[in-house]
Each structure stands twice: as structure tokens, then as C-alpha cells.
From TrEMBL, chains A, B:
Key words, A-Z: Ammonia transport, Membrane, Transmembrane, Transmembrane helix, Transport
Topology with respect to the bilayer: Multi-pass membrane protein
Name of the protein in its database record: Ammonium transporter
Organism annotation: Oldenlandia corymbosa var. corymbosa
Main localisation: membrane
Cellular localisation: Cell membrane; Membrane
InterPro entries on file: Ammonium/urea_transptr (IPR029020), Ammonium_transpt (IPR001905), Ammonium_transpt_CS (IPR018047), NH4_transpt_AmtB-like_dom (IPR024041)
Superkingdom in the source lineage: Eukaryota
Segments crossing the lipid bilayer: 52-75, 96-115, 135-153, 160-182, 202-225, 246-264, 345-365, 377-395, 423-446
Span of domain Ammonium transporter AmtB-like: 52-475
Record GO terms (molecular function): ammonium channel activity
Automatic annotation (TrEMBL), chain C:
Naturally occurring in which organism (per UniProt): Oldenlandia corymbosa var. corymbosa
Name used for this protein in its record: Ammonium transporter
A GO MF term: ammonium channel activity
Limits of the Ammonium transporter AmtB-like domain: 50-482
Domain of life: Eukaryota
Amino acid sequence: MAASLSCSADQLAPLFGPNTTNAAAAADYICRQFSAVSDKFVDTGYAIDTTYLLFSAYLVFSMQLGFAMLCAGSVRAKNTMNIMLTNVLDAAAGGLFYYMFGFAFAFGSPSNGFIGRHFFGLKAVPSSSFDYSNFLYQWAFAIAAAGITSGSIAERTQFVAYLIYSSFLTGFVYPVVSHWFWSGDGWASATNTDNLLFGSGVIDFAGSGVVHMVGGIAGLWGAFIEGPRIGRFDRSGRSVALRGHSASLVVLGTFLLWFGWYGFNPGSFNKILVTYPDASGSYYGQWSAVGRTAVTTTLAGCTAALTTLFGKRILSGHWNVTDVCNGLLGGFAAITAGCSVVEPWAAVICGFVAALVLIGCNYLAEKVKYDDPLEAAQLHGGCGAWGVIFTALFATEKYVSEVYPDKPGRPYGLFMGGGGRLLGAHVIQILVIIGWVSATMGPLFYGLHKLNLLRISAEDEMAGMDLTRHGGFAYVYHDEEDSHKNGIPMGKIGPVGSS
Amino acid sequence: MAASLSCSADQLAPLFGPNTTNAAAAADYICRQFSAVSDKFVDTGYAIDTTYLLFSAYLVFSMQLGFAMLCAGSVRAKNTMNIMLTNVLDAAAGGLFYYMFGFAFAFGSPSNGFIGRHFFGLKAVPSSSFDYSNFLYQWAFAIAAAGITSGSIAERTQFVAYLIYSSFLTGFVYPVVSHWFWSGDGWASATNTDNLLFGSGVIDFAGSGVVHMVGGIAGLWGAFIEGPRIGRFDRSGRSVALRGHSASLVVLGTFLLWFGWYGFNPGSFNKILVTYPDASGSYYGQWSAVGRTAVTTTLAGCTAALTTLFGKRILSGHWNVTDVCNGLLGGFAAITAGCSVVEPWAAVICGFVAALVLIGCNYLAEKVKYDDPLEAAQLHGGCGAWGVIFTALFATEKYVSEVYPDKPGRPYGLFMGGGGRLLGAHVIQILVIIGWVSATMGPLFYGLHKLNLLRISAEDEMAGMDLTRHGGFAYVYHDEEDSHKNGIPMGKIGPVGSS
Amino acid sequence: MSAVSCSASLLPLLGGSATNASAAASYICQQFDTVSAQLSDTTFAVDNTYLLFSAYLVFAMQLGFAMLCAGSVRAKNTMNIMLTNVLDAAAGGLSYYLFGYAFAFGAPSNGFIGRHAFGLKDFPYQTAAGTTFDYSFFLYQWAFAIAAAGITSGSIAERTQFVAYLIYSSFLTGFVYPIVSHWFWSGDGWAGAARSDGNLLFGSGVIDFAGSGVVHMVGGIAGLWGALIEGPRIGRFDRSGRSVALRGHSASLVVLGTFLLWFGWYGFNPGSFLTILKSYGSRGAFYGQWSAVGRTAVTTTLAGCTAALTTLFGKRLLVGHWNVMDVCNGLLGGFAAITSGCAVVEPWAAIICGFVASWVLIGANKLAAIFKYDDPLEAAQLHGGCGAWGLIFTGLFAAKNLVREVYGPIPGSDAGRHYGLFMGGGGKLLAAQLIQILVIIGWVTATMAPLFYGLNKINLLRISSEDEMQGMDLTRHGGFAYVYHDDEEGSNLPTTFKLRKIEPTNTNTPTP
């Protein structure tokens, strides 16, 4: 920041010349004032940027609450306690693992292009490049990836399997991917200082690929390996919807995710007090780009929601709020990659296509009898992949050069006249993420499956995990006496033989 | 703030000397520019700090929502309306009382060490030391203390008793405690300018003692005096869990509290644009300490949640999400005192022990047949007390001197080699808080009990307060037909004679 | 940034004897120019951070509305009302992007309607007068627009066709509301106190700081017409005309929604300053816009708190029990009322505002019952009634120095600004506020009433009575919102009989 404000006594003193009583002293005096001013600017900049980043991190954290409510509402009442516990633990276990080594793997520079190797246990943090607020922000991203996966394998997975995959995902698989695409050392990062992939690097600004595809594909393997829930497809192979138990919780969760996405996308700038070249003192700077990012995010989600509304109305004949919620989230997942480098009108296109992608993926999933209680693989995997492609098509020259200023003359979106190199890099990204996550999470889930640690027993599944594993049902709306009378065991939950 | 940026024309003019046409005018001109710059920095500082403090206050306020949901989910359905009303009123009544005299008792300086005596009704606010944002922030803290207590005495307390204790607690008991430990005039405050307790003062940064212990101990007396809920302990004295009616609301509330805690702990710095000595212009300043505080808070909560998960699994044989939520909150309550002055690794220890403290306290409570529907006394009282001790053991020299800069060479944590004086002060704090709250809230609850204003009748308790006092049940999930059948008018509210 | 301005006037002071006086002067002045530019950058960064996070808070109100509405209707219509809330936000986003924002703030324009920045064309930009319109401002205003639509959806809940929602919601956020906000908030608007050419209504202009009138009355009156035209829900008034309460299905959701609205209101009111880094006269002092922002948050809090307490005791006296839903509505009424004056009244006045607001709400509800007006969320009474009171309140209690600080001097005139009648400021402000109330009632009536009437005539407004009895979730939205019971899963039978009985049916025998 202080680059442009540089007072040099050596330069100033000769200007005063010999007639000034003490030219050197005068120049020095004045320049010391300016250097104090310059320091104050640095302090102010840190304070503003940290405030901005921390509150963004808090918003991203509130997405965990959104996931918990969305998942809870989307499963059947008998598995609510189970799924909520996994969401709480994603956050808690993720906190410890990301503290101990996840952050180090992701951002521990200097390192090679594949994996970071400093900052274990936040050693040597804060430094001039990473502060505690960066850690907090990245942690909130890591647990979001784990939260996505938990949706795919809901209602039929052993709790122990959750703990294992969640730690592995937040502690290793996700950090490595984020190192590749976001760290300054990553081999495919757009901020890599040596050598950009295809002279371009991957522009995955807030993580359609890094976060959403990783979570979605991990979920895909988990759900694929353990198979559909009992009753999800009937004897003749027809799909039977197993509806979630509370649409209110689904809507609550969706709105909370929307709320949190304002931390996720605009917050990914990390700093707000950044001046764009030759524009210091003008109204246009990173603060404006941050606002634009919030607007593109909003528009993509809104368009996707409306498209889903009418699309589903035509296909299924009624208006469905949970489908609209999923469509909305699909739009957000898609715009996440390009949110900062596309025009608002392009975001409308992004959302429109994302809704169609989601509908298509769901159709496909039904065909192949893939069961995903939250449509997480379709939504985050499918729409995330579309978002990565979309960015390579619609990124504008001006915004790319502003947001990624290190290298002038970068490739930008194909449809905007920027050539195909960015698209090439992005196709590589999709393939590499699919490959890496499959190579790590696929064997993990398969191994758990072989060890009988993945899927619960059929009895547990019919009775619901809450009763068999989590000490009771999540809801007790009626009083004890009732159930004593009518003898339905569902109602009675209290620990009978507790000490 | 402007200390380092001070231009004096008297000093500069002689440097220009007599040969400059108008040395005095030139120096004056330049220095006026600098003083304009300096003023702008002051403005900027106020704007950033106020932004930071206000949004932190909003986050702390969202904890009230968290408490409401946590309490609602933790009680039986028949008392939901009652407990939610008390939570709304904690905030509302607290707002008026804290405005009229609570803030004055707490921070009305100049005053004596025991109680403040200015700013009644926000008179003479804003001043250079207190702005409206400070009031809003402190108000959000005050209602949190009252919210804690309401959990302990849930499901069996008359509504009038709530109104009385809540006003008394937020208007008098809590403000006095916060005056002692947080006001610059307080006898035990670490920012006291005259005379520090044991040469150290109490470091209760965000209020493990001031907020959590006060709320917890007040709840302890209330719950103790009115006795356990009917059916909580059976004839043979065995403990019978009376489960809350909705685990979803408990998880929702817990996550909201977690979200709000990011305002509670890091926000307690009040300012973010503060430079640490000799470090202006560097990346390290209060903004970094704020981030660190958020990290320690996160890690303590995460560790406590995981410890509780496995601890409870071993003790009770199943995974329990509500217990994990309570463990998580116990970790937060404990780290609150020391969040800004300990290293992240120490926060892990803090959370680990907090979970054990909570399990121990719950065991003890069962032994002595103490019934607390939300475990509030155990959680906020017990873990809060541990947090106060923990701070005295693990506070590091560097952070203590940065966060409390007024006096150099302060005592710090015993285990960090800082001697026992801080621990002495903290033990005093625990004793004094227990004494003061017992001396004020104990008689109050006892008096209400004697006047038959405290506990509801057994009939009310069996039927649920919602039916008898609050105009009906909180949930109407069933349709008209049900009530047609059983003909109980309460259930039926819907259209009988529709057109 | 005029604060730091170094100019060539430094040159003669250094004089000719310095070896290169002009170079020295320009060297020093260049440094100051840099400082000034950086200060300006800092100001933009701080103000945008403030505005964006305020916008996020206002957006959280949409979540609050969704939960409040969901909890206040019967379980059988929950899916329907939540879908409308999601779509208010989504459809509002597109229509406000395409033309709503342009109608509201597309300067330069006439006093009636804006006409630039359709589809955010040529955005962001700075006007000749130095006002900056940035994306954050758009986002903030969008969050306001959808709040207005959210209010209306409550009034017509449980009996309105979904298509009607889509139509009125787009029309309201895309046209009706933007025009009102243009009148009172845009620098070109004919009635706003912030009008930039200094030609103010009654020499005063309307002080509707965060929108008691612009947002709440617009939403409330639109809802009033909708609910009036389609009539009460079946069963709301029995044969003899007695009012029968149709209770919402979940008090927990109502409380959740209320608290979220409270939370969001901290973006709504204090955020309406748009900037926080602005000094009031004396530079370098502790008092500036940051302090006014804090004061606004405090007045908002106090008004809501007072209204809640007043409602609590008022209803206790009138009805005989403590009722959390009523307290929640009272609280929101207090907020709706203080919204207009929050920035220009003292905290003690906010208490008066809240106290009266709760009685206005109780009175409006009484009146509604007499006229057999059915509003499931009391939205017209709450936002319309308390909103109108808020405008009058501002005309009575706006404080002289606060009005001057918040709105600045009148452009091109040295006349002082008018302030509250009871504070000795004369009646001109009050007159302007009354004009605002009349104009808003007139405009919303003239636009929304024909719309609702037309929809009614072509049978697009109200659902059939079969749908209404069964609940729209079953007939239109693919199923019931809640499935708490288990086994029968997947069967397509109507679930009405399988819903579990929830409340205590029997008088319990005490468990020993």
C-alpha cells in the first residue's frame, strides 16, 4: 500500500538547497511525518481488511448452521439426530484437524506445487502473508466441503464412518486441492508466480471446483458404494420419493446458506481496501468489485430458483418449495467460481443453465438408481462443474486483470473473445478434481465398506438411527402418558433404564 | 492516536531558516496539512472501530435468538411458549432497564470502585470514552446473563417471577459485577488506573466470570430454591431424564450461539484499529489479536465437543447430539475469560478440561438431586469458573502486555512462569462473584418463594404452562378433524362453522 | 477529499531563495496528493464494508419473514407461504435488477420516476455532484424492495393462488415500490428531505429515514387491499360473525422469525446512513456519523423493547394471559414505527414511539375485527398502522441538531431545516409527513387495488374452497410440510388422518 507514498529526504533536501538553514534537517523532518502517515495507512488497511475478512468468515460459518438445518429437514424424522450430530462434528473435528495440519497442507508456503508444509498447528502464524483471520476463513470453507458430503450419505451411514471420512476430507483431501488452485505455490493456481498452467491458471475464485465439486464427488462415491436407502426404489425399480420431515427446516437452511454465501463469495477477496491500477482516489476499487460479486451471486441464485420453479411445474405439475430451494443453491454453487470476474448479466445465464443442469443430473441419478437424500452430488458436483466451465466462457478481460493483477494480458473467457486457454485450464481442473477425489475418497469408502463400517444394518435403518444409536427420537411433541396408553413406541423416547 | 504524527510549525520553521521567503508561513502551511491528515485518521479510526463494535454487538444479540431456540428445544412442548416469552422479554425488559440505570451502574465513570453513577438514561453519551455503540454492546451482554438464568428455572417458574428477577439481574446485579471487573474504576479491574488487585487485576476478558458465572449462579439459586420439576426424580430418587421436545431447535440454538460468540469474544476488544507498541506499519496489531481470539474460541469449543462426544459415548453407550451441543457451549463459556491472552494450543487444553468439568458437574447435580433443564448452572457456572482459573494458569506474558498495555510487567499465567498473583486475583474473583450473586439473588428467589410467586402450582406444571397461562399450545400440526373427534376445545381453534 | 489539499500556494512561502522552490513545493504537494487519494480509498473501503454487511443483515430479514409467516399459518399451508417468501427474494432480485432499481434511483431524472441504470448498465458510476452509486448500494436497496413484498405476502396468506403471488410480487418490487422510494429517497424525488436541488416540499421535505412509509406502509397497504378484496379465510368469522382465531402452527417459528427480523433491523435502520466515515463539522472529534449510527441502533432497540413490554401488559389486561405471539407482533410494531425517525430522535423519544406503537397496533387489530378484516399476520395493521404512526412521530419528535447533522444544510439555501413540532420546530415537517401518508395511501391504492381487483375478476386471486379446506400444500405443492410419523411413507393417501395428535389430550395424573 505504501508504495506510492514515498518521501525521500535525499531527494527533497537538494530541492530546498543551501539557502535553507538546514535543508537536510527540514527534509528529514517532513519525510518522517510522511512515513508516519504511511505507517498509519498500513495499520488502517490491516484493520479494515481484517474486519472485512473476519465478518465474512463468520458468515461462512453460518453456512454450517444452514447445512445442519437443510440436512435435518431433508431426512426423515427418525434420522434427524444422526444427521445433525454429523454436522456439528464436521465443524468441531474440522476445527481441530484443520488447525493441526489442514491449513499447513493448503497454504504452508514456501512449498512445492502439490502440497504445503509449514504452519502446522499455526506455528509461525501470524506472518506478513497469513494472519489468524485467514486461517479462520479457510477453516470455514473446509468444513463446508465436509458438510456437502454428509448430505449424500445421509440416513444409512454408520457414525464412525462419518468421523473417519470427515477427518480425512478436511485434514487432507480438501487442503491439497485448495493448495493446487488457491495457494501461490499451487501448480494450477492463477496466482502462481512462476509458471501458469496454459499461461493462464485456473480461475476458481471462491471454489465451485475446490469446495463444491470436492464435496459433491466425495459424496457421490460414498452414496454410490453403499447403495440407495431401503425403499428408495421399489421392486420394479420405480423411484419412490422419501420425503424429508420438515420443509420449514429446509427453507430455514436454504436462507441461511444464502446469507452465508455473502461471506463465501465476496469474502474470497480477503481484502477490501485494494486500489486498482491508476485509480487511487477514485470511487472504483476492490470495494466495488466486492459489491459486484455480491450482486452476481444474488442474480445467479435468483435466476436458478425461478427457472427451477417453472421447470418443475411443467415437469411435475405442482409448485415445490424444496425443489426451488435446491435450484437456488445450485445457482449459487455454479456462480461461485466466476462470481468476481463476470458481468451481472452473465450471472443470469449462469443461474439459468445451472437449474437445467441440476434437473438433468437428478434425472440421470434416477435412471442409474443413485440415491442422494440431499441431491448433494448432483447439486454441488454437477452445478459446480458447470460453474467452472461457465467461468472459462464468460470471464471478462477487465475484471480478470483487476482481480488477478500479477500478470498482464491474461487469457479470459472464450465467449468474451479471450481464446480457449482458460477453458483448457478449467477442463483440466475438472478432470483433476474428479481424479484426485476418486483416487482418495473412493478407496476410503470402499475400504470402510469392506470392513462393514460404512452402512448400518437393515434393522437400524428401518427403525431409524436416532432410536438405535443416538438415544432417542428428535421430537417429543406429545407427553409421555400418551404413548404409554397407545403403546406406539415411536412416541416414547425417554431413557427407561438410565441410572 | 495521532501521537506519532505530530507536525509542529515551531520546530519546522527554524529548519527552513531566514532565507526562505516566509519560513514561518511555509512551516505553518505544511503542518496544517499534516494536522488535517491526522484528523482524518482519527475519523477513520472511529469509523472502523464503530463498525467493528456495532457488528459485533449484532452478533452478540443473535445469541439471544440462540438462547431462545436452545431453551425452546430443551423443554417439553407444553412449556415452549412460556420459555420463549421469557427469552423475548429478557431482551426487551433488559433493554429498558439497562438504558435507564444498568449501563450507569456499570460504566458511569468517574465513580468509586463499587458502582458507577453517571449516564443514567444515556445522559452525557456520547462522550470521548463511551459512545452509543458501547452501550448497545454491553446491553447485549447483560441480556445474555439473564438468558442463562432463565434456562435453569425453566418449566416450573411463574411468569411474574421471571419479570422480577430478570429486571433485577440486568438492572442491578450484573451491572455491578461488570463495574468491578471491566470498568476503569472497578476495584478488581485489570484496567484500573490507580491500584491493581494484587498488582495484577482480574483478566476476565469477555466474561467467563462476569457474564457466565453470574448467570449460572443466579440460576443455581433459583433452581435450588424451587426444587426439581415433578417427575425429574422418581420415588426411589432415581434420576429420570425429561427430554426436550425438539433436538432440531437445540442444534439451531447451539449453532446460533456459536455464531454469536464470534461477537462476544473477539468483539470484547471494542476496537480493532489499535497499533501495538513500536509496530506501526507492521502486519501485527490488534487486528491480529482479534483474529487470534476468534481462533482460540473456535478451538476450545471444538475440543470440548469432541471430548464430550467420546466421553459420553463411553459413559452412556450412544452418541448424543444434545450432550455434544452442551459440551461445545461449555468449551465456549470456559475460553471466554482468557480468549485474548492465551495461545491456540492452550485453548485446546481449555476445551478438553471444560468438557470434563461439565460431565463432573452434571454427575454432581444428579447426586444432590439438583434439576436444571438446560444444565445452565453446571455449564455456565462450572465451566465459567474453570475458565477463570484456566486464564490464570495459561495467560502468556506477550499477549497480556499487548492486550492490557497500561501497566508494564504485569503478572501472567502460573504455568507460563508468571507467578501466582494472577491466580490469586482470579480466585478472589470467583469467590466474590459467588458471594455477591448469592447475597442478592438468593434472598430474592427466597422471598419470591415465600410469597408464593416463584413456583407454579402442580396442576399447572402437569398440564403445561402454555395451556394454563399462555393461551394455548405452541404447535398445531394436526388438522381440524382430530379435535372434532375428541372434542377438547383447546386443541380446536380452526374454523368450525365455515361457510 | 477536500480535507487535505495542498496547492501551489506553498510555493511563494518557500520563496525564491530555496534552490528549487517550485520543485520542493511540488514534491511536498505530490506527497499530500497521494495521502489524499489514499484517504479517499480508505473511506470507500470502510463505507462499502459497512454498507455491504448492513445489506446482508437486511437480507436476513427475508429469512425472518419466511419463518414468521410459516409459523403464523396453519401447517397445511406452510409450503405455500414459504415458497412465496423464497420467490419474493428471487423474483424481486431479477425485476429489481432489470428495472426496479432504475425506476428508483436512475439519476438524473425527474421527480416522479428514475430512468437510468436499467439492468445495471454503466454501473458503477459517479454523478457530477459527486454521489457514487455502487453495487453495494444496489444490493442494499434490493434487500429493502423484497422486504416490502414480504410484508404483503403475509396479509393474503392461506387463501391466495400462487400465480397471483407471482404477479403482484413482481409488480410491487418492480414498479410500485421503486417509484415510492424515488419520491422520498432519491436525490431527484419531489418530496424527499435529501432532494439535491434544495427545492423541498414545504421547505422541509419528508424525513422517512429508513422507510416507515416507503417500505412498511407500502407493503401494509398493498396487503390491506389484497386481503380486503379476497375476503377472510373460511372459518375466520363464524356464522354469528364472531371472530375465531385461526392459530398458526408453530410458535417456535414465530419467535425465530421475530428475532431474525430484530437482528436484520440493525441493518435496516442504522444501515440506512449508507456511510459511516463522515465527520460532523469538527474533524478529529469523537462525534461523527459513527456515533449517529450507534444512536440509531439504540433508538431502534428501545422502541422495540418498549412496544414489546407495553403489548405484554396491555394484552394481559385485555385477554387474561401472557401471549408470546402478541408480544412478538408488538415488538415488530415498535420497530416499524421507529424506522422513520430512528436517526433524528433522541433515545427517550424512542420509548414514547414504541409505547404508542403498541397501542396503535392493538387499536388497529380491534378495528380489523370489527370490520371482519382478516390478515393472518396482522401485516396491514402492523406495518401500515404502526408505519403511519412512525411518520407522524417523526414529525413531532425530530430533534433540531440531529436533523441538521443527518441531512446537512439545505442545498442552495441558508435556511435551517424544519424539525419536530414538539421540539419547537413548527408544523412544516409534520405537514410534509402527513402529505407523505396521504400520497402513499393514494398511490398504492391506485396501483395495487385495481391489480388485485382484476385478478379477482378473472378468478386468479382466491383459491377454491376445497383447496382452502384441504390446505394448499396437499393440493398444489406436492405434499404436507411435515412428516413426523414414520412407516406409511410413500403412500399417496391424504395424510390428514395420520398426523399425530400432538398436544396433551388428557388430564395427566401426576407422576410420583
